[in-house]
Amino acid sequence: MTIKTELMDSLIVAKKEFKILFRKKALIIPLVLFPIIMIVFFGYGMGGTVKEAPILIVNDDTGRASSSLVQEIGSFTEKYNGDPMFSVTYTKDMSQSEAESKINDGMYKGVLIIPPEYSESATKNESTTLTLLTDSSDTTTSSIIVNYMRQLLSKTGSVSLNIPNIYGNLEYLDFLIPGVIALTVFMGSVATTGSAIAGEKEDGTLVRMLMTPISKRSVILGKTIYQLILQLGRAVILILAAYFLLGFNMNGSWLLISLVLIVFTLGGVGMGIVMSSRVEDMESFFQLNMLVTMPSMFVTGVFFPLSSVPDWMRYIAYCLPLTYAIDAMRIIMIKGQGLNAISTDLIILSLFAIVTFTAGVRLFRREA
Amino acid sequence: MEPIIEVKNLVKVFHSRGRKITAVNDVSFDVFKGEIFGMIGPNGAGKSTTFSMLTTLIKPTSGSIKVSGFNVDKQDDKIRPLIGIVPQKLSLYPLLTARENLELMGNLYNVPKKEMEEKIDYYLKLVGLEASADRFTGGFSGGMKQRLSVIAAVLHDPEILFWDEPSTGLDPQTRNVIWKLARKFNDEGKTLIFTTHYMEEADNLCDRVAVMDSGKLVALDNPEILKEKTGSTNLEEVFVRFTGEEVRD
Questions:
Q1: Strand locations in chain B, DSSP E?
Q2: Where the protein is mainly located, per its record (chain A) (predicted)?
């Protein structure tokens, strides 16, 4: 069988899938509305707290006033579940752009820059300005740092705080949306691929199709093409809805988003195939699906930053592919960074896709 | 006569929950080109398993099958375009119309578009479904679905037709239509192999009947000769003579 016939065959399958999808009116609406509803419901009024958020203090001043300020931050004892809120590193002689790049690299959640003339101004009771940089792509941690610093400095009267916005003026929604897109694509690709195959097993149409000359590869490829179009379409609708309805700021490249989502969808499709090969009907598939996708939904930091969860939960999150997709989406959409910044995420997601796909093709048997 | 299917020492063993089940046990037979070949036997006799192996759906544990000269084990992709299958389980996409279901099948068999549309119109009319051509098959009756399944399996003009229990659960009118089609396709030179639980049908239609029981082939001949040999008046008696009275699980 030539590659051309296999491709043509897979397009026949993809076309059939779309035809059936468009006739399932009751399915289309939740497919599109589910993520939007999720953003609206979770997007408002969700906060959180942090622990051991890494912050850097750049102290260019040698006087007594600054050292007492630094000491106060360092010894800040407000505890969250027994852990201090900040883990502080000290340095000096660092430019603001250098400090920004440290935040960009994810090394610190916040950098406080104390200017050289701070102690002198403090003794003369002159007003001075400190600069506080925060990783505003993590809105929860960032706002907690800002609030704490404001409270602390309000005691010293004449000191004001300059807080430049590295990533623009971000809200929780901006943090939430990239995560929800990744979650939507993950749950969508796993569930629709798997349930469609389980359903076709149940009604015999899958076996019927495999009785024809079409190859197993073409059937899988056809279903994959369908999923790629469907999931990318959902992501675009979601981003546009977030932009028009909620004023979401999209900072990054559409091309990179597509790249991440394509790789991630491939993994999801592979996973759906693997899962459906273990069940004989739709009902069993949905039970299995709950077991597999639910932990991903709550552990991977869609709704809250991973920096705010206990260690054991974070370790689980690092084992789940969704974590890396969310991370990549946030880096692209909020920080507007390029391919370099998401390379680790992409490698892990590619591995996920390769493993599940290989397993899926092996487990997807011709025999019923 | 020229064999179109050659089955030699066919064995299929399934392993299920630690148990070993021999569904087909050392079966050998030929099917000749142009004949109507019936397979009968109690439930669990191994008819459907044999069918699945003949139609390339599952691989034999041992033994060999040649279909039109091709080996089922290694040349299954050569065999599939030559055969047309009506599975026991009616398998139509409920959200596609009758015509779309047929088009999908035609496309999967690479039937050229113009030829396919002509055939679809011809066959829909032949089985009396032309008025329902653009309805979703989800709302079809069992009889309508079966008629559609039968014509879906001939669009690519196969040499051999495999029908697995094509008349089970149908009203007499529909069964009549199905068997008329069987005769018609056979007259056009196609070889037809089918399984059934209706002895009368096998008696009326088949050139030869294979009787299977507990995975073994226990008899194979023309229905008249089988009746003569066993001193029976009809095929039902032949069937009981070979397979016994005991009810199967």
A1: 3-16, 19-32, 36-40, 62-67, 70-71, 83-86, 160-164, 191-195, 208-213, 216-221
A2: membrane
> Using the beta-carbon criterion (under 8 Å), do A366 and B92 form an inter-chain contact?
no
Q: Does A204 sit within 8 Å of B90, measured CB to CB?
A: yes
Residue B189 has pLDDT above 70, yes or no: yes
- Same domain? A140 vs A186: no
Distance CA A153, CA A128 (A): 11
Q: Name the residue range of residue A291's domain.
A: 172-367
With 0.90 as the threshold, say if the pTM is over it.
Answer: no
Describe the crossing of helices A25-43 and A3-23 by its angle, rounded to 10 degrees: 80
Query: Quick check: is B145 in a domain?
Result: yes
> ipTM higher than 0.95?
no
Q: Is B33 part of a structural domain of the chain?
A: yes
Interface check A12 vs B, CB under 8 A: yes
Residue A8 lies in a domain: no
How many separate domains does chain A show?
A: 2
**B69 Cβ under 8 Å from any chain A Cβ:** no
Question: What pLDDT, on a 0 to 100 scale, did the predictor assign at position A97?
Answer: 87
Q: How far is A220 from chain B (nearest CA, A)?
A: 14
Residue A169 has pLDDT above 70, yes or no: no
